[in-house]
Write a structure and sequence with these properties.
alpha+beta, Helicase, Ruva Protein, domain 3, four-stranded antiparallel β-sheet, 20% strand
């Protein structure tokens, strides 16, 4: 599933085309994805101008000039791509250009036909083979309280995530450090890949109680810095392309080439040379070095 860096990479790729563009037409090639599309979504958005393209945790947020926002989640295999819109065939009705099979891939479920301010007509196409993604609509003033976003924790980017903040979040937590970092009510957007990588960077075991970090200001600050760094580096690398992730221009992310522990079971640790192991925590694979990331390791 795309994590925060992949969604942020998609946002940055779409932003120059979508922000300020007018939705000439929205084409829905099926009635649903993971959930049914909002009622009359195509009619609702036709003629609207896109004010901004944002992100909250792993959600892409498209804000329109009437205050409504489209909430987009990529699910397991969702991706956006940008194409030049097809010119209208001479003498044909406007609708014909939306029904040309040569331009419609089997999994292109949503097509935004946009009139942009600088680049002319563009299509932004949402493709999702597994259809685990979704599009939901929040009316003006209702975005923060939407069920998908309500209750999300702080973002793991910027200085909002600090050692003292982590210490407060993890105070008296008896769950493992890995479980606490994946709790979206505490920190929004962190996923399995980047939690494994951040814990390795600061030499912390995914098995130790999260509350132990609250009692050690130095370790809490080290963990906060490691999280911010790994997220920033992953965004700069265009995210991690393991199966389905593509950037908006179709190119692959390449942060997977920098993995220190994730998906490296049986390979040598890049810090101490011991063998990288894999355990299962809460149904998710955890990759870590038990030699230099043991609960009593000291750095």
């Amino acid at each position: 599933m795309p994590e925060l860096p992949e969604v942020e990479t998609v946002r940055r790729g779409l932003q120059p085309v979508m922000e300020g563009a007018k939705v000439e037409k929205l084409v829905l090639n099926r009635p649903d994805l993971r959930f049914p599309f909002p009622e009359n979504l195509a009619e609702r958005l036709q003629g609207r101008r896109i004010i901004s393209l944002g992100r909250r945790a792993k959600y892409l947020l498209i804000e329109f000039d009437d205050g409504a926002s489209l909430i987009s989640h990529l699910g397991m295999s969702g991706s956006y791509r940008i194409e030049a819109d097809m010119p209208l065939p001479a003498g044909s009705p406007e609708e014909t250009r939306h029904n040309m099979p040569a331009r419609k891939a089997a999994h292109d479920h949503v097509v935004f036909h946009l009139a942009t301010r600088h680049d002319g007509a563009r299509q932004v196409i949402y493709n999702d083979p597994r259809r685990f993604g979704f599009l939901l609509l929040a009316e003006s003033g209702q975005l923060a309280g939407h069920p998908s976003l309500k209750g999300l924790g702080i973002e793991p980017t910027g200085n909002d995530l600090s050692g003292p903040v982590l210490a407060q979040l993890f105070k008296n937590k008896k769950v493992t450090l890995k479980a606490a970092l994946l709790d979206q009510r505490l920190i929004a957007g962190l996923g399995n890949i980047y939690v494994c990588e951040a814990l390795w960077r600061c030499g912390l075991s995914p098995l130790q109680p999260a509350g132990a970090i609250a009692d050690n200001a130095q370790l809490a600050e080290l963990l906060a810095v490691s999280i911010r760094q790994v997220i920033a580096e992953a965004i700069a690398a265009g995210g991690s392309s393991l199966r389905d992730h593509r950037q908006a221009d179709g190119s692959l992310g390449y942060f997977q080439h920098n993995f220190a522990v994730y998906d490296r079971e049986g390979e040598p640790c890049r810090r101490c040379g011991a063998v990288i192991g894999r355990i299962v925590q809460n149904g998710r694979s955890t990759f870590y070095c038990s030699a230099c990331c043991s609960p009593d390791a000291s750095f």
